[in-house]
Specification:
It catalyses: Couples ATP hydrolysis with the unwinding of duplex DNA by translocating in the 3'-5' direction; ATP + H2O = ADP + phosphate + H(+). 48% of the residues lie in helices and 12% in strands. It is an alpha/beta fold and 1256 residues long.
Amino acid sequence: MVYDLDARAWTDEQLNAINTRRGNLLVAAAAGAGKTAVLVERIIRRLTDPVAPISLENLLVVTFTEAAAAEMRQRIGAALEGAAARRPDDENLRRQLLLLNRAHISTIHSFCLWVLRTYFYRLDLDPAFKVMDPAEADLLQLEVMDQVLEECFTAEPEGGPITELADSLGGRGDANLVDLVLKVWRFTRSLPRPETWLAETATCCYSGEGPLEKQIWYPEVKEALNLRLEEAEYYLRRAAKLAAGPGGPAVYLDNLIKEEELIKELRKELDLLSWGEVCKRLISFTFGRLKPVRDPGVDAIVKERAVGYRERAKKLICGIQEELCRDGAAVKAELGRAAGMARALVEVVRRFDGAYAKIKRDRGLVDFGDLEHFCLKILMDQGAPPGELRPSDVALELRRRFDEVLVDEYQDINGVQDAILTLVSRQGTPDDANLFMVGDVKQSIYRFRLANPELFLDKYHDYPEREGGPNRRIILKANFRSRKAIVDGVNFVFRQLFSRHVGELEYDDDAALICRANYPEHPEAAPAAIEAYILEGRWDGENTAEFNEADDGYEDGSTDLEDLTALEREARLVARRVKQLVHGTSEKPGPEFKVWDAEGKTYRDLSYRDIVILLRATRDRAAVFLEALQQEGIPAHVDAGGSYFAAVEVETVLSLLRIIDNPHQDIPLAAVLRSPIVGLTAADLARIRLAAPEKDFFTAVIEAAGTAANGELAARLGNFLTRLERWRTMARRRPLPDVLWELYRETGYLEFVGGLPGGARRQANLRALLDRARQFEGFARHGLFRFLRFIERLRETEGDLEAPSPLGENENVVRIMSIHKAKGLEFPVVIVADLGKGFNFKDLSGDVLLHGRLGLNPLCFDMENGIKYPTLPYLAAAHRLRLEALSEELRILYVAMTRAREKLILTGTARNLPQRAESWSAGLLEKAERLSPMLTSRARCPLDWLMYALARHSSATPIRMLAEIQESRLLDDPSCWDVKVITAAALSEMAGREAISLKQEKTSQRAIADTEGTPLIDREKLRREVDRRLSWVYPWRPLNGLPVKLAVTELKRRFDVFNDGETPTRIQVNRFNRRPMFLQAGSGLTAAERGTVTHMVIQHVDLGRPVTAESLGELLQEMVTNEILTPEQAAAVDTGALISFFTGDLGRRLLARPEKVKRELPFSLAVPVAELYPALKSEVSTGETILVQGIIDCLVDEEDGFLLLDFKTGRLPADPLAEYREQIELYARAVSFIFRRRVKEAYVYYLDGGTGFKVI
């Protein structure tokens, strides 16, 4: 390639970015703006400057990935070769070419490694240190965590803070605590001063000092409250609009307008009121009773919709009252509890950090995080005051060395990396500053890797565009990639969606794209319109779940659309559209349009390799699209991680390694025996099982191999056992890579999979496993067991080995990949699919939320009552993290839509389409072009955002028709859209047209067709056999609908027993998404709630003292003080009924033996199915049981047996004994089984009537 410096026509903005020499430069380059070309051109011009050339050895070029660094090096080399070809006598160019391989063009980690290798003596670091693979580091961290926790638990007394922390987190063993500690520790590694952050987050955020309004988290709580109030106001406004419109319930208007004004007034005064005053205003807010509608002209549907909107507003206000409203004293008490957990957690993190650092130092190891932090330690003056970033003498030396520091993808760096780049670059005067940063914050999509786009945004807002100061911002907004139709569509959507709240940047004129791509006109070029397909997810007869997994097991492409899940239906639609694009229709065969070939400078037919399908998440979803394409005869390839370990060939080899390590593992052993390595059938496995039914499967294999009656099977098993023993011996003596290669060679499995469909990829998968084994052999500690543990850890953490792709760039296949993988790429035709997939907010519901500015925010754990609930700082962090997650998702959508060069197609599925369309039309009520943050933050999936914007376009009539919107405020925009709404009925009609035949008949014919060419088979007999098998009915089908376990109260309902005062089975609540209701003020109690409260009081009565009105009053007051009951609940307790019980015969028996009384005793009991369902045939139910669970109110251990009591509240039934006999007898049966003692007496005691009925 010959590089011509003058071959490209640069824009004025690009030339500014290329030629400006003074000051630090931030280049904000939009999608398709040619930022890499600008960066390379700037480097080449600086190297070839005729007045003041610089040398490659005096440049530091930092990229985000190794691949990007390699591409950058290749481009610079090509440019230098081109320049040298034109100027063969230029010695400087030849010298730069020689320096190319030594130049600092690398990732930030590679640069840090160079600093450590060069200046290792500045730290207590072995010069021969080894950089651990991330997987090796992960394993070592787990080992260190085990040691640290063992030391912590041993050192502290029983019930100490760390033990309490572990108990609070729950889970199996200490797994939750281990995961949380590592999560916090890894988060701190992205910060330049992790120790400082830990110290501050353990004290400042939970000090409880000063007014709440001055706390760092208070603005976030206020913003979250404001957004929710605004949403409630919006619902009331829509309700009022309906009430005032034709057919509307006008009598509702007074209430609706008054309620809307009250919310609006409160929003205006949020900044003026204290938190206590805000809470008082919120708690006093009530919704009045609506006036009855007597006007016959009122449309019932309009009325229902108006009431529905008001109910949504009420739900929001009630949610705010329950979740946020608590006084200052309560907040500070909660913060005190949370502070203890935070301090304990920080202590464990610090201990882990110290222990991990020591073991790495002792073994001469560093991990990737160490590369950055050790580098920062070398570059930073350790004597500088806290918070000051002062360069060390090494940093000053590097500043003198590097004439310029250039950073690509600056939007994706974190705080540590930014500090390093700041220290090695010169700051100060315009003539001295030398940091060049290029990136696009709208494409910052790596927050999950702890990238911090705020670093870019701070400079973007602070740096002026004018020249002259030490810092300058240059904006590149010309797009050289996409056709004007795509650019217009992207601008139309994101002008409305991006804001400081969601997106973290306003999509103004500086951010909007300008089309500069030059596509020559052609009559068969791609049509202008962007296509948007919205599919209805609900189906006639389909349940309300989004994905109703209906699978008829057929794989030949004949599956009818009615049987497909929502995702499968969307994939089938995409596949058909791809087929139309490439092959046309019966009316118009051939490619739908031609695409521009930049290399050939001509238009050519569209082919499969021009098309890519982009998905937000590919795991378990890309395979659905792949199958749909293949069913249409379309060659396709999934370029996605996360599927490597799911590959059959990889799982088979791993199963073989597992049984070499330990053959007494049933599932891996059966997998290997069934695989082509051994080749047994399912019937063979059954015969092996029969050889030793009660023993593990490996023992059964040994016994089956020694049974002469098994004949050929015994011989094959004997051969396998001989080989297995040899392989186990080999694994103990030889390195793992040698063992794995010998397994490939001896079994022939590598060659075998090469002959299967997709053989090249399967072989590449197995070679990748071998490469990983070779890499693992270089770990500090290795071996087969440790390798298998490493693999399992990768699975548990949802990690994966990258599935290698043998696919060439020019292979004619449709590519399916994640949006993240597509970043930096471009394609003629882009289909962004699965836009209806909901956002993943699972990180916002953990026990602890982490934020760089807001710190460490745990839930409040109330161990005494066994509950946990969010504090205000936790809610503040959740709000901020949610907005940041939404911002990232919006940027991901932007990246996806800007990959297209000539054609963009968008698809998504939505349930309850009319209701969703009504929600999408919300933007039609807004006057500004940019949609309000209240609306954009409500989105649950990318399709919501897209439809919020498109609903305001003239082409989106189908959306507005579904929403029944008559009046609308549309935006005047040049973008062109083709919006298609495909309802369930339309899909059903499509399926009817394409139905070929009955499935059972087709399957029968297919099975018989497989026997063509085999004349000895009786075809009629075979047909009868196929029909017999297809007609087979599962004999235990009657058991399918039975529950595995039942609560006793369900049994009571099953026997047609009902009691208004009885509550459902009482279980201890372990988790609340909001503050528990019994800690809040509420309205009157229902009968069931009064029953629950009464049971709670009986559970807490002190049986060691007389039960009097005074003692019960003290108990109730104590329960209110401890927030077990609310004052309202305490007032509802009938203390007279309790005194009557405890002064009666039964109550005195409890008081006489207080130490022998058990209250609220849970139990589980296996009951034969035949006993619960006598109508079932005995041959079906014999031997089957159902687990029955319940809670016994009171059990008294007396000398000659148990006294069992069951308390009831509410009305007295006509026949109490018949009502509860089954339940009480089951209780007695459970007690006798558990304690091996009989229940001598059992009573049902009605507290309201003061009457006990003896059941036993």
